[in-house]
Recover the amino acids of this structure.
């Protein structure tokens, strides 16, 4: 892989790491009313709100994976990272198995994803341990990158 593509991959992964940490931080920094207003605006009377951003993030994920594999990333480390990430995502979803109080539930039209989005806004701390572990992994990896 060329030095330029390698540099792009590094910058992109570091930016995405910062983005992922900031996204989780907003759950704890913003009060419920602000989080609720943002999710209400995103859904705007629909049952699904992330079609465009999901596709953009998917394309970015494909690109990052291709860059990492093309530059010779250790396959076992890559697979281990996929397992850890997928497990954390699964556990994150499972943390929101209870509906929030009626006044904090998703308005119609509802979908399973919309119901969970509102449950997350209601009490993000349900997945606090998972988010803390994720943050520790990201910050640890960034620190190791800059130290080495």
């Amino acid at each position: 892989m060329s030095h330029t593509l390698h540099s792009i991959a590094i910058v992109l992964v570091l930016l995405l790491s910062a983005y992922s940490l900031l996204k989780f931080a907003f759950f704890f920094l913003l009060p419920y009313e602000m989080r609720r207003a943002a999710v209400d605006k995103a859904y705007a009377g629909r049952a699904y709100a992330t079609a465009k951003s999901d596709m953009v993030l998917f394309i970015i994920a494909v690109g990052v994976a291709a860059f990492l594999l093309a530059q010779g990333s250790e396959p076992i480390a890559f697979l281990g990272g996929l397992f850890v990430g997928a497990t954390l995502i699964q556990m994150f979803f499972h943390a929101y198995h209870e509906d929030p109080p009626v006044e904090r539930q998703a308005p119609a039209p509802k979908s399973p994803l919309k119901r969970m989005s509102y449950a997350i806004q209601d009490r993000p701390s349900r997945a606090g341990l998972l988010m803390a572990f994720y943050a520790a992994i990201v910050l640890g990896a960034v620190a190791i990158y800059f130290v080495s």
User: Anything to note?
Assistant: The CA atoms of residues 35 and 121 lie 6 Å apart.
